[in-house]
Amino acid sequence: MSNRMWGGRYESGPAEIMAEINASIDFDKRLAEQDIRGSVAHAAMLGAAGILPEADAEAIQAGLQTVRDEIRAGSFAFSRELEDIHMNVESRLRDLIGPAAGRLHTARSRNDQVATDMKLWVRDTIDAVDGQIADLMGALAEAALAGAGIVMPGFTHLQSAQPVTFGHHLLAYVEMLARDRGRFSDARARLNECPLGAAALAGTSFPIDRHRTASELGFDRPTANSLDSVADRDFVLEVLAAASICAIHLSRFAEEIVLWTTPQFGFVRLSDAYTTGSSIMPQKRNPDAAELVRGKSGRVVGALQGLLMVLKGLPLAYGKDMQEDKEGAFDALHTLSLSLAATAGMVRDMVPDADAMRRAAGAGYATATDLADWLVRALGLPFRDAHHVTGRIVGLASDRGAGLEELSLDEMQRVEPRITEAVFEVLGVDASVRSRTSYGGTAPDNVRAQARGWLERMRP
Ligand code: ARG
Question: Is 244 one of the catalytic residues?
């Protein structure tokens, strides 16, 4: 049987394998709500513009509500023969209201229809993801406030560098996530133009009102070029790029949780809620949620790469290749949402071990910079000389297997005779973090103020 929606000049139906490669209904049924929203706006406009008799426009809108209710109730029978969500909805509409349903597709095409649906879906999804990022930021800022005074090693090259505060470390992720929100919101503002009414590619001869449908659907304005309207998928790319960057931020944090929860680090503990045991090694608590957040970032980035490749070399305007925008985007944004929720759950679940972090903070001569700074401040040494003197003192301590603060004044004076007792005040990790009061620095008071500022700004 040929397709009843477009099969006028067709005598037979598709080869089985053609139906298999062509049908998108299995995944684009996700666009049902957006598809019906777009069709309702289109029908209302056609009626108001006098392109359709009012009675038909009204019957179409009422029928579409019924279709939506059936889909929401799970009683709608999706059919692969009808290829995609657009034709499934329209075909059901015809069952419900008769031939007037055939007038809905006046002055539009599936090309502008699918672009509109996808924009609506992406926009809805950005709004949901934005709320989730904000929630995670709130969880991190709470934990940062609680951990503002916890001293931990700060790393560069994953080597102990200088002591920092746990709160400061968590707030670094709040900054990243704030930029992620900004990227999503920039993308949202740019995509918010309505393609509906561009028709197949060239516009239409019917006197449609694209400004009306655009504003009805919450868009800022209609798109300006009909070819671009149906060919553009950079709004999907942009959102996948923002999603990729966000997923990579989550992956870096997940990696830190994996490290921090090892017995070797022992900086934080996750409860049974976010770990799994081993079937053979009874002592294990594996941070699976964190590992999955780290691993799943791959498929988010993969979706971006995939769609970039789909669009590369694609001539204007629409090509069926573009149907390949959907599965990757659906999967990537679902994955991001899941990862955000799991990360927020872990942040609320994790319990820092302040003693373990403080012990580690003191190891590896992390206050060597503080000693060098003291030599500059107290003795007036040029920083390069102070660096050299400190290096020799660290060497001494290392030979003895002692920490800096465990050396005697005598030993230090053998390297630099002008060093006084006062030096010991800067060799401890607490003094070190307390002294880092420069704007953006790790001092507990700074961190408290920043965390409070974020919590204030996050309040709905
Ligand atoms: N399922 C199609 C897609 O997702 C809808 C548009 C089909 N347009 C066409 N001219 N065959 O891209």
Answer: no
Q: What is the pLDDT of residues 366-413, one digit of tens each?
A: 889 999 999 999 999 999 999 999 999 999 999 999 889 899 999 999
Query: What 3-state DSSP class applies to 81?
Result: helix
| Pairwise CA distance, residues 239 & 233, whole Å | 10
Distance CA 443, CA 438 (A): 8
Contact between residue 324 and residue 268 where contact means Cβ atoms under 8 Å apart: no
Tell me how crowded residue 388 is: count the other CB atoms within 10 A of its CB.
Answer: 15
Structure tokens at 10: 């067709």
CA dihedral 436, 441, 445, 448 (to 10 degrees): -160
Residue type, 147: G
Q: Please confirm, yes or no, whether 278 is among the known catalytic residues.
A: yes
Of the residues 2, 79, 271, 278, only one is catalytic, namely 278
Cα 123 to ligand 1 centre (Å): 20
Task: Tell me the pTM.
Answer: 0.93
CA of 324 to the centre of ligand 1 (A): 10
| Cα 35 to middle of ligand 1, angstroms | 13
Contacts of residue 282, Cβ cutoff 8 Å, sequence gap at least 6: none
pLDDT per residue over 152-174, tens digit each?
999 999 999 999 999 999 999 99
Ligand 1: lining residues by beta carbon, under 6 Å:
24, 28, 84, 110-111, 114, 318, 320, 322-323
Q: Are strands 159-165 and 151-156 parallel, antiparallel or unpaired?
A: antiparallel
Nearest CA residue ID for atom 11, ligand 1: 320
From the list 12, 75, 157, 438, the catalytic residue is 157
